[in-house]
Design a protein that fits this description.
This is Histidine kinase. InterPro entries: RpnA. This protein is mostly helical and 85 residues long. It has one domain. Helix 3 packs across helix 4. The chain is rod-shaped, with a radius of gyration of 28 Å. The relative contact order is 0.07.
């Protein structure tokens, strides 16, 4: 019987090994979840930045703030805050 077979028959070794494997899988799942959340946040930030650029472009081309607010579903105050930033 080789060393690995002897160790695998030892219940305390097997429990420690299984606990370590579970911890590794849990960590991998946590990292995957964090990565997915980061991607989601990045996409949302990109959408928001695109909306800001669109608002500024509309205003630069002479569109009234009221129309910009109507087309973007934002309040006039929100539009003004974006344009002042």
């Amino acid at each position: 019987m080789n060393k690995w077979e002897r160790m695998s028959q030892d219940s305390s070794f097997r429990q420690a090994y299984e606990a370590r494997e579970k911890a590794l899988m849990d960590n991998a799942a946590k990292f995957a979840h964090a990565r997915n959340e980061g991607k989601k946040e990045g996409r949302q930030e990109g959408i928001e930045e695109g909306k800001i650029q669109l608002i500024r472009g509309m205003h630069k081309n002479g569109m009234p703030i009221e129309d910009i607010a109507r087309f973007t579903n934002l309040s006039i105050e929100e539009i003004q805050n974006i344009l002042q930033a």
